RNA sequence: GGAUGGGUGGUCCAGCUUGGUUAAGAUACCUGUCUCACACACAGGUGAUCGAGAGUUCAAAUCUCUCCCCAUCCA
């Protein structure tokens, strides 16, 4: 017990948090060690945040605060908790950020130099994020935090790729892809935005082979030569007769069939649509769905291919005006209409993208879907409702995963192509390779023996890296002993918007490597939205910076807010005002402790307990039980609210007022000791229960009053059933107290002319049901019945 | 266009799985109070036909159907 246990100040000072942080670091309170460890591991596959720009997202900060609560609660349940911290540093966002920051273009910058600039940008942003996480009291393993762009991480990504290649799970194929001419790269769908751009809709008159004509409207007449079908809606009576008939393409004199398809919108243009390879994403889908044969229409240079015959090797805009000109001469243009067209544009260059057939690497995933579905049903979801996002995604995966990107900042695809026979040659797994700048680690081509190679200059989709975090953190392929102890891990905490990507890809990749799922549980958090309930985004300008907020109100206030703000898995609104309010509870708790600390501290309960004391202990064990339920489900909304409710509305407002007299008067030895020990029991239990949510204030009070050792080395209180029967008096006690207060308020004192003060005497009889609490109730209200 | 989640006092949010006393809590607001931990507090109070409509039932915030609105994801 601490000698100088009295708390002096009248309010919780958040600046104490810094001091506490220092102490935790010095004492290494949260260290993880496998040595001599015979307890059960609890491994959290922490999401490595992506430093994509400033400010960091307040919702993300709240997210990490809650993951930390999971870790802390698990430690108190005696698990050997492994809580790694990582930073995701691969991919497009940092490239965009770097281009903007240094006003350069990736393609026009030396690759090496560009990578260095990206690294610098990442370092700055990363240190800020790490600082916020530390300031929030995150108890992860910061000493050896990992980066997904480290040599160790990237070599693991490459090792798993080499493994997949050797198992014939990788292939190279031509598939239509988004392509930006300005950036010279393929783009993932996620890197595309849409903009309304004015364009001309051309109504063309085509002859029908069987008989008659049809009007087809298109914004892309230059792709006429790549047309493979005309579609109409089967419910559009103008065309029902024509379905199955054939259109003769003018100029090119080729026949294509008129087909029915639900995507043909009768209200747009003429209702008849030209399907070309490829005018837009819809065309891609139609080609696949209708089994049409692709006509390669555009080159990587942004010109038409040879197949465009008279219009070959022209820029797209040139080809368009020439074709329109010729169609006009031929009386094929019915009319032109100016419209606003929702056009896909590149997020970086803001120029329209084209869809090109490009050669890319694919990872086979289709054959794994049935097995993954089966395994997915075994994952425990918190909350259960979010399981269906994964399930519906598993149902809708329809093509293999394109894993190559024509970009710079990412893990390189470790392949060298033979200059003579073009055979791809792969190095041995275990190293980090950069084929675009390095010589291959072998002499001869495995097929023809040639010594000349060209290194692959493409990189992986970033999800190839992030999907193996469970393998990386458990030291897969690097430390068998640790890996055996830690894998499969326990929990994947993550945001719900990346279930289709991070959660799914991790399942796939880890299963391909280990034949089992990487975790047994998934904890899915909603995202922080703004005060109007809309998602925060930089373009909307509604992003809240967590840094100043955490410093203004303190980490514990922020964490308590995050726990009370919304139920498990739901989106939650972020409002500074509400964070400010949560500080009030900390203040209440602090003053409660100040009161308790002003008396002797008796930690163990005596043999004799008064009935009021038994009653509150009964309520206390109910609270312990409820917190246990919440913590077991990683749902902090439940314990945070239950603790606040018990502490404020029961313990402080009613119980404490009832027993105050016994706490002050030590003539009644038994009653005095009973009360003192009970208030200490309640306070210490509250502190323990609250410590995963508010680690700072609980630590400060705990170490001041109860122990020299950190509260975070303590065990979680176990639930029991003591004095449960007495909780039936809770409602009558509250009602009686309220009745007395109301009566005093309604009684005007003859001396002051004001309502009676709470300490003034009044004549009210304690009801017989509450007779065992009568001494306390009489003293509390100064009843002189 | 498809999918998912949500619509409960001024605001935020619990309850809905398993229908049943007066719809909980926080905050805001109003009134009063410095009552030996706390005015970042205490006491009291105002305030919700639970998105709309229909149905099932002795009984619906809760179950069923239809519709409306909001958000997110996918196209």
Number of DSSP strands?
25
Q: What's the average pLDDT?
A: 91
Question: Which range does the strand content fall in?
Answer: 15-25%
CA(first)-CA(last) distance: 42 Å
The number of helical elements comes to: 22
Annotate the secondary structure layout:
Blueprint: H1 16-27, E1 41-43, H2 58-76, E2 80-82, E3 84-87, H3 92-102, H4 111-135, E4 141-147, H5 151-166, E5 170-180, E6 185-187, E7 192-208, E8 213-218, E9 227-232, E10 246-249, E11 254-260, E12 273-276, H6 281-290, H7 316-329, E13 333-346, E14 354-363, H8 369-376, E15 380-382, H9 387-396, E16 401-402, E17 404-405, E18 416-418, E19 424-425, E20 453-455, E21 459-460, H10 462-466, H11 469-473, H12 480-486, E22 489-495, H13 499-514, E23 519-525, E24 528-529, H14 546-553, H15 555-565, E25 572-573, H16 576-597, H17 611-632, H18 637-664, H19 669-690, H20 695-705, H21 730-746, H22 774-781
Parallel strand pairs: 1-2, 3-4, 9-11, 15-23, 22-23, 24-25
Antiparallel strand pairs: 5-6, 5-14, 7-8, 7-10, 7-13, 9-12, 10-11, 14-16, 17-21, 18-19, 18-20
Helix pairs in contact: 1-20, 2-15, 3-4, 8-9, 9-13, 14-15, 15-16, 15-18, 16-18, 17-18, 17-19, 18-19, 18-22, 19-20
The structure holds one RNA strand of 75 nucleotides.
């Amino acid at each position: 017990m601490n000698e100088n246990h009295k708390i002096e100040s009248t309010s919780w000072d958040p600046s104490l948090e810094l001091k506490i942080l220092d102490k935790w670091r010095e004492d290494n309170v949260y260290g993880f060690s496998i040595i001599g460890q015979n307890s059960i591991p609890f491994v959290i596959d922490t999401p490595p945040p992506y430093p994509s720009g400033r400010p960091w997202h307040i919702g993300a900060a709240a997210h990490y605060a809650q993951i930390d609560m999971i870790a802390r609660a698990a430690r108190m349940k005696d698990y050997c908790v492994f809580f790694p911290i990582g930073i995701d540093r691969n991919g497009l966002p940092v490239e965009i950020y770097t281009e903007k920051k240094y006003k350069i273009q990736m393609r026009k910058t030396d690759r090496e130099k560009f990578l260095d600039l990206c690294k610098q940008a990442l370092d700055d942003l990363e240190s800020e994020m790490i600082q916020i996480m530390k300031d929030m009291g995150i108890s992860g393993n910061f000493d050896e935090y990992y980066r997904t762009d480290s040599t160790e991480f990237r070599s693991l990504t490459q090792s798993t790729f080499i493994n997949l290649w050797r198992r014939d799970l990788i292939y190279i194929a031509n598939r239509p892809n988004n392509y930006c001419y300005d950036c010279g790269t393929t783009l993932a769908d996620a890197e595309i935005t849409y903009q309304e751009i004015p364009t001309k809709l051309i109504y063309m008159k085509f002859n029908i082979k069987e008989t008659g004509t049809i009007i087809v409207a298109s914004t892309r007449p230059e792709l006429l030569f790549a047309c493979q079908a005309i579609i109409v809606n089967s419910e559009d009576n103008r065309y029902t007769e024509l379905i199955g008939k054939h259109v003769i393409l003018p100029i090119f004199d080729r026949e294509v069939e008129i087909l029915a398809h639900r995507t043909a919108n009768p209200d747009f243009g003429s209702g008849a649509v030209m399907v070309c390879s490829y005018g837009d994403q819809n065309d891609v889908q139609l080609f696949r769905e209708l089994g049409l044969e692709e006509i390669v229409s555009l080159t990587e240079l942004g010109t038409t291919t040879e197949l465009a015959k008279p219009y070959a090797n022209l820029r797209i805009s040139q080809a368009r005006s020439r074709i329109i000109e010729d169609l006009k001469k031929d009386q094929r243009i019915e009319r032109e209409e100016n419209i606003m067209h929702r056009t896909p544009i590149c997020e970086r260059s803001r120029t329209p993208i084209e869809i090109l057939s490009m050669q890319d690497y694919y990872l086979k995933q289709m054959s794994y879907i049935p097995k993954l579905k089966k395994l997915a049903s075994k994952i425990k979801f918190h909350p259960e409702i979010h399981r269906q996002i994964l399930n519906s995604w598993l149902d809708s995966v329809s093509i293999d995963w394109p894993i190559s990107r024509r970009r710079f900042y990412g893990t390189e695809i470790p392949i060298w192509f033979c200059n003579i026979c073009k055979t791809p040659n792969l190095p041995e797994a275990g190293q980090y390779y950069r084929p675009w700048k390095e010589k291959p680690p072998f002499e001869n081509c495995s097929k023809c023996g040639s010594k000349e190679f060209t290194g692959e200059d493409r990189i992986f989709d970033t999800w190839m890296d992030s999907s193996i975090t469970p393998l990386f953190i458990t030291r897969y392929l690097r430390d068998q002993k640790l890996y055996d102890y830690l894998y499969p891990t326990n929990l994947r905490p993550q945001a719900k918007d990346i279930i289709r990507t991070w959660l799914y890809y991790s399942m796939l990749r880890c299963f391909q490597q280990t034949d089992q799922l990487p975790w047994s549980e998934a904890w899915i958090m909603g995202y922080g939205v703004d005060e109007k309930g809309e998602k925060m985004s930089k373009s909307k300008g509604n992003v809240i910076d967590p840094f100043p907020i955490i410093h203004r109100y303190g980490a514990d206030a922020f964490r308590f807010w995050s726990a009370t703000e919304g139920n498990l898995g739901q989106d939650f609104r972020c409002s500074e005002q509400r964070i400010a309010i949560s500080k009030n509870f900390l203040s209440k708790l602090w003053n409660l402790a100040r009161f308790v600390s002003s008396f002797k501290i008796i930690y163990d309960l005596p043999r004799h307990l008064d009935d009021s004391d038994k009653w509150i202990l009964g309520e206390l064990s109910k609270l312990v039980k409820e917190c246990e339920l919440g913590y077991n489900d990683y749902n902090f909304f439940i314990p945070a609210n239950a603790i606040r409710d018990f502490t404020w509305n029961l313990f402080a407002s009613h119980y404490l007022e009832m027993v105050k007299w016994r706490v002050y008067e030590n003539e009644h030895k038994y009653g005095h000791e009973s009360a003192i020990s009970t208030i200490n029991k309640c306070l210490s239990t509250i502190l323990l229960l609250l410590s995963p949510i508010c680690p700072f204030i609980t630590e400060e009070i705990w170490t001041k009053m109860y122990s020299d050792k950190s509260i975070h080395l303590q065990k979680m209180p176990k639930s029991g059933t003591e004095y449960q029967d007495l909780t039936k008096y809770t409602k009558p006690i509250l009602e009686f107290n309220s009745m007395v207060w109301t009566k005093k308020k309604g009684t005007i004192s003859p001396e002051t002319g004001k309502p009676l003060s709470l300490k003034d005497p009044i004549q009210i009889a304690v009801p017989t049901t509450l007779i065992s609490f009568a001494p306390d109730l009489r003293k509390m209200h100064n009843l002189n019945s």
